């Protein structure tokens, strides 16, 4: 039992004998034949496309029901809903601006109304605007980037928290830029660093309630945000500078979220996973 403390004991030789231990270490996989997220309900912000869509599909495959939030990308959201239904899953779509705390409260209340519970929150939606200099970052851009990329994480998590219980999971999408910086995405990288701090602090705050909080710091992943952010020339070279020499695909990142949302990660909180094509960030 995970909550069973070791009893006072001593063995006289190393590496020791497991059969003598009390309690015995747990070696068998938990629920080995069961889907990892069976019966769980998740909210995924920015779930209409990119990493969010891949996470939604991966969650559904493992038995979860999902609420997908998006700004106004109706076609992408409907395509995601279609893919989820084709996979035999249940999906709730909610459009709106997560920079509005009241909208985040609405997302949670609608999810509870439709699915009756909430187990997983994935804070994922983000914006980024490439600029050559700090002098080019307007107050408007700075505020929008922070409001979308970190304020919304606070708003959605705060709205969800009263409904989360022991065993629930919160997963925050950060970025490799939080660890190595980005000369042309100064405000974006700053928000991603804030997300790391948010993840670690909230994990400490909720550990005694056994609500786990972790993050995923992806590297260059091929999502709609890339052609919406950079020139054609930069897009053509996107991801080639990492050791693996290519951008990652959203479905290569999604398994990290499944792991963190499931009982497989029952002893992980306050941690960041780095699917980034081989870049060493020591974070």
Automatic annotation (TrEMBL):
<protein>
    <submittedName>
        <fullName>NAD(P)-dependent dehydrogenase (Short-subunit alcohol dehydrogenase family)</fullName>
    </submittedName>
</protein>
<dbReference type="InterPro" id="IPR020904">
    <property type="entry name" value="Sc_DH/Rdtase_CS"/>
</dbReference>
<dbReference type="GO" id="GO:0016614">
    <property type="term" value="F:oxidoreductase activity, acting on CH-OH group of donors"/>
</dbReference>
<comment type="similarity">
    <text>Belongs to the short-chain dehydrogenases/reductases (SDR) family.</text>
</comment>
<feature type="compositionally biased region" description="Basic and acidic residues">
    <location>
        <begin position="1"/>
        <end position="15"/>
    </location>
</feature>
<dbReference type="InterPro" id="IPR036291">
    <property type="entry name" value="NAD(P)-bd_dom_sf"/>
</dbReference>
<feature type="region of interest" description="Disordered">
    <location>
        <begin position="1"/>
        <end position="34"/>
    </location>
</feature>
<keyword id="KW-0560">Oxidoreductase</keyword>
<dbReference type="Pfam" id="PF13561">
    <property type="entry name" value="adh_short_C2"/>
</dbReference>
<feature type="compositionally biased region" description="Basic and acidic residues">
    <location>
        <begin position="23"/>
        <end position="34"/>
    </location>
</feature>
<dbReference type="InterPro" id="IPR002347">
    <property type="entry name" value="SDR_fam"/>
</dbReference>
């Amino acid at each position: 039992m995970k909550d069973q403390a070791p009893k006072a004991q001593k063995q006289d030789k190393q590496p020791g004998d497991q059969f003598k231990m009390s309690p015995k270490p747990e070696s068998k996989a938990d629920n080995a034949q069961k889907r990892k997220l069976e019966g769980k309900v998740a909210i995924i912000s920015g779930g209409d496309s990119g990493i969010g869509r891949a996470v939604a599909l991966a969650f559904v495959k493992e038995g979860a029901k999902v609420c997908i939030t998006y700004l106004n990308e109706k076609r992408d959201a409907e395509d995601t809903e279609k893919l989820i239904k084709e996979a035999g899953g249940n999906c709730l779509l909610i459009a709106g601006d997560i920079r509005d705390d009241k909208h985040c409260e609405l997302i949670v209340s609608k999810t509870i109304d439709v699915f009756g519970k909430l187990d997983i929150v994935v804070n994922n939606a983000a914006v980024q605007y490439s600029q050559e200099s700090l002098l080019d970052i307007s107050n408007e851009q700075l505020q929008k980037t922070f409001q979308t990329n970190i304020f919304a994480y606070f708003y959605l998590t705060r709205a969800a928290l009263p409904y989360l219980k022991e065993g629930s999971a919160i997963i925050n999408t950060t970025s490799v830029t939080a660890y190595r910086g980005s000369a042309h995405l100064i405000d974006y990288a700053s928000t991603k660093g804030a997300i790391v701090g948010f993840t670690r602090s909230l994990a400490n705050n909720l550990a005694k309630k056994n609500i786990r909080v972790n993050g995923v710091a992806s590297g260059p992943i091929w999502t709609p945000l890339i052609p919406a952010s950079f020139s054609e020339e930069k897009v053509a070279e996107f991801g080639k500078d990492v050791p693996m020499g290519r951008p990652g695909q959203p479905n290569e990142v999604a398994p990290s979220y499944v792991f963190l949302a499931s009982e497989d990660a029952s002893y992980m909180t306050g941690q960041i996973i780095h699917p980034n094509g081989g870049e060493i960030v020591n974070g």
